[in-house]
Structures are given as structure tokens and as C-alpha cells.
């Protein structure tokens, strides 16, 4: 492995290490013991899920307790607006317009972060036995400190994600979520074995849980590597002109075109309102928040439907059959039996639509089925396929990008020194 690739991997690990350090910096003026006790009692609802995605930063009320979710929520809103308004979609495709687009996403992230920070600050008043709950200083002073701290933390996470994407290996935002989930795995394994040792979980149930997780991982790996290859032929003139270059003779279309984005988007949309609702002490609002608990059927039904919706939505963005057909026609290639141009575009759309149908069902089942199986066993902690799906998909995507970097360096070396 070349020095450049090792350097990129070290940069990525360094930024992820910085992210984990930030998770241990608490917001001043709070009673951390009261907050820890509160999260121990609410590990199975939306707050527990949010805490898992943040790498337990929420239970420590760190400056990054809101995590990267405000940025993801802002990205969802902008993607929906871009799909609705053609001018915004055109701006996103242009190089200079993309910078303006990302600037709007950042401003939207600031707005959402401030709303969530204020909601969390007022919600802390209902935690604990003190006059201001878990807040140990003046409420107005704490509100200013908390909003500034959480906003700074979220902006730092955005910067870390962008730096990993530009200078490291893999998608920075996905790796931040990956790091948060993975950081809680050792504690979850240890807690599960403690439950088995104390007799709260039967040893056979423990084996069954392990088998479910293992089967889920194997299914995810198998489907993520699955693709349909559409054969492509080229005119003899094109082949002769490019006889010293490799011309791809097929178009690969993945079964899961949208990747890890649908479950992340669905989780962000479900966690965002739940976080705000949990901050209220009103009985009716609390009842709605409990109704949307990740351990409830309503949450998982909504998750199932939202994952399917976002799978179709995001697939339509990442897979542009018209551009592929135009590029193929420009290069002198064609799909046997299909007319170049509109005929090829329609055929690719049909194939992508069929694959997206099965891919969306796969994502929705993986996101909900493990929870249903574990729920039937009476396991006293939250487990869903969303976390496993994100971890495995991000790991596969990162390994592919490292492999691509290795091959790229090999080609550069060969072109420099010759055979």
C-alpha cells in the first residue's frame, strides 16, 4: 500500500478520533449524574436511538449531543426542494451553483440546530429534582451557553465530515455515524453478556440474537455486492481507435442504488420530531412521543414506509438514465436490441425501476425485521437492522474506495515507469 493511501487512512482515523474526543466534552452547567440516570431509564425510546447514533454523546450531554442529524435533516429538505423546483436542481448541477447550494444547506443546519438546542435546554428542566431540573445555573445563562455549545459542536462535525471526504477515505458524514454506532458496540456486547450471566436473558436467546445479527450482516453483504450488468456493444471503428484502452462492455446497475441514505434519512426524520416532543412535560405530547418510540410498532411501520420512499427518491437522483444513454451514444456504444437515445434511456429506466423495487423492500425489511424478531424474544434493549445496515454498508463503501485508490496508484506507477 502506497504512502499516499496510508496518509489518507491516517487522516481519516485522526478526524474520527477528534470526533470521539468531542463526545466527552460536556456542556457547562448541567448535572451529568441526573442526565445519565434519565437516559438509563429511556434507552428503549427515541432518545435511546438518538443516543446510539451520536455515540453516547447525548447521554453525556456533550457539545456534539445533537450529532450530525441537523445537517442530514437540512440535506433532506434541500433534496426535496431540488426535486420540486427546477431552478434549484439546475443550480445544484452547476459547479458554482453547487457551492451556493451547500451554503444554503449549512444555513439551514444552523437554523435546525438552534431550534433543537433550545428544545433540549428547556427539556432539561423536567429532568432531576432541582428547581431547574438538571440545570445547575441560571436558566437564561444556560440557554445561551447550551445553544452556542451545541451549534459549535454540530458545525465542527460538519467540518470534520467535509475534511474526511476531501482529504481522507470514504464519505465523511457516513463515517461519523459509523464511528458513533461502532463506539457503542463493545458496551452493548458486554451488557448483553452481563444480562446472560445474571439470568435476565436465556443463553439460547443470546445465541439466537447472535445468529440474527450474523445472518443480517451476510444478507447485507450479499445484496450490496449484487448488480445487474447490461451488455454494451461498440462499433468496430470505436474498438480499433481504443484498442490500447479498456472499454467497459457492460453497464453495472446495483440492486441497491440508493445505498445507506434511505435508512439514515428515515431515521433522521423520525428522530427529529421525537427529540422535540421528548423535551415537553405535557402528558399528551409525551404520549405521542411514546407512541413514536423505536420499540413500538408505529415507529417501525413508519420506518418501513419512509425507507421505501427515500429509496425511490434517492435512486432517481443518483441514476440518470438519460445522461447514461447520451454518453453511450456519444461514445459509439449501444445496448443490443435497443435503439440509441430515447429507447436506451427507457430500457435503463425500466431496469433501474425493477431493481429499486426489490432494493427498497430489502432496505425496509433489514431496517425493521431484526427488531420484530428480537422483540418477539423479549430482549430488554433496542436492536434494529438500521444500525447494522449503516455499519456494514459504510464499511463496504470505504473498503471499495481504498481498493480504488490502490488500483489508481498502480496505474500511475505503471504509466510512469512502463512495463
From TrEMBL:
GO cellular component: plasma membrane
Summary of the function given for this chain in its UniProt record: The central subunit of the protein translocation channel SecYEG. Consists of two halves formed by TMs 1-5 and 6-10. These two domains form a lateral gate at the front which open onto the bilayer between TMs 2 and 7, and are clamped together by SecE at the back. The channel is closed by both a pore ring composed of hydrophobic SecY resides and a short helix (helix 2A) on the extracellular side of the membrane which forms a plug. The plug probably moves laterally to allow the channel to open. The ring and the pore may move independently.
PANTHER family assigned to the protein according to its UniProt record, in alphabetical order: SECY/SEC61-ALPHA FAMILY MEMBER (PTHR10906)
Origin: domain of life: Bacteria
Keyword Chaperone in record: no
Main localization of the protein described in the UniProt heading: membrane
Keywords noted in UniProt: Cell membrane, Membrane, Protein transport, Translocation, Transmembrane, Transmembrane helix, Transport
Location in the cell: Cell membrane; Membrane
The keyword Cell membrane appears for this protein: yes
Membrane topology of the entry: Multi-pass membrane protein
Name of the protein: Protein translocase subunit SecY
Residues annotated as signal peptide: none
Segments passing through the bilayer: 61-83, 104-122, 142-161, 173-195, 201-223, 255-277, 297-319, 355-373, 379-396
InterPro entries, per the entry: SecY, SecY/SEC61-alpha, SecY_CS, SecY_dom_sf
Organism classification: Bacteria, Pseudomonadati, Campylobacterota, Epsilonproteobacteria, Campylobacterales
GO biological process, one term: protein transport by the Sec complex
Family listed: Belongs to the SecY/SEC61-alpha family.
Assembly, per entry: Component of the Sec protein translocase complex. Heterotrimer consisting of SecY, SecE and SecG subunits. The heterotrimers can form oligomers, although 1 heterotrimer is thought to be able to translocate proteins. Interacts with the ribosome. Interacts with SecDF, and other proteins may be involved. Interacts with SecA.
Protein's organism: Helicobacter cappadocius
Amino acid at each position: 500500500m502506497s504512502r499516499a493511501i496510508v496518509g489518507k487512512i491516517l487522516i481519516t482515523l485522526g478526524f474520527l478520533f477528534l470526533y470521539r474526543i468531542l463526545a466527552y466534552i460536556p456542556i457547562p452547567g448541567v448535572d451529568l449524574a441526573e442526565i445519565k440516570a434519565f437516559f438509563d431509564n429511556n434507552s428503549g425510546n427515541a432518545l435511546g436511538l438518538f443516543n446510539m447514533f451520536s455515540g453516547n454523546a447525548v447521554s453525556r450531554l456533550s457539545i456534539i449531543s445533537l450529532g450530525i442529524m441537523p445537517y442530514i435533516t437540512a440535506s433532506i429538505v434541500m433534496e426535496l426542494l431540488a426535486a420540486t423546483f427546477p431552478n434549484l436542481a439546475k443550480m445544484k448541477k452547476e459547479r458554482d451553483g453547487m457551492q451556493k447550494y451547500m451554503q444554503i444547506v449549512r444555513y439551514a443546519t444552523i437554523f435546525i440546530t438552534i431550534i433543537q438546542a433550545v428544545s433540549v435546554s428547556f427539556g432539561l428542566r423536567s429532568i432531576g429534582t432541582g428547581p431547574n431540573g438538571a440545570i445547575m445555573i441560571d436558566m437564561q445563562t444556560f440557554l445561551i451557553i447550551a445553544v452556542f455549545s451545541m451549534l459549535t459542536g454540530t458545525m465542527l462535525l460538519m467540518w470534520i465530515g467535509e475534511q474526511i471526504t476531501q482529504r481522507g477515505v470514504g464519505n465523511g458524514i457516513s463515517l461519523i455515524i459509523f464511528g458513533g454506532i461502532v463506539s457503542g458496540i463493545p458496551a452493548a456486547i458486554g451488557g448483553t453478556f452481563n444480562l446472560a450471566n445474571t439470568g435476565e436473558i436465556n443463553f439460547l436467546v443470546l445465541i439466537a440474537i447472535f445468529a440474527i445479527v450474523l445472518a443480517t450482516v451476510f444478507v447485507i453483504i450479499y445484496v450490496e455486492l449484487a448488480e445487474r450488468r447490461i451488455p454494451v456493444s461498440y462499433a468496430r471503428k470505436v474498438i480499433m481507435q481504443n484498442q490500447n484502452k479498456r472499454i467497459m462492455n457492460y453497464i453495472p446497475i446495483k440492486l441497491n442504488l440508493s445505498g445507506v441514505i434511505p435508512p439514515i434519512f428515515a431515521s433522521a426524520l423520525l428522530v427529529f420530531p421525537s427529540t422535540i416532543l421528548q423535551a415537553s412535560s405535557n402528558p399528551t405530547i409525551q404520549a405521542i412521543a411514546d407512541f413514536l418510540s423505536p420499540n413500538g410498532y408505529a415507529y417501525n411501520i413508519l420506518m418501513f414506509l419512509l425507507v421505501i420512499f427515500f429509496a425511490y427518491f434517492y435512486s432517481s437522483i443518483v441514476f440518470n438514465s438519460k445522461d447514461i444513454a447520451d454518453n453511450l451514444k456519444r461514445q459509439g456504444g449501444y445496448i443490443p436490441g435497443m435503439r440509441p437515445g430515447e429507447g436506451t434511456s427507457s430500457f435503463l429506466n425500466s431496469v433501474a425501476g425493477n431493481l429499486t423495487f426489490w432494493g427498497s423492500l430489502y432496505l425496509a425489511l433489514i431496517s425493521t425485521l431484526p427488531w420484530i424478531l428480537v422483540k418477539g424474544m423479549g430482549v430488554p434493549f433496542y436492536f434494529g437492522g438500521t444500525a447494522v445496515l449503516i455499519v456494514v454498508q459504510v464499511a463496504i463503501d470505504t473498503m471499495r474506495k481504498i481498493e480504488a485508490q490502490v488500483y489508481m496508484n498502480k496505474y500511475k506507477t505503471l504509466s510512469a515507469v512502463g512495463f
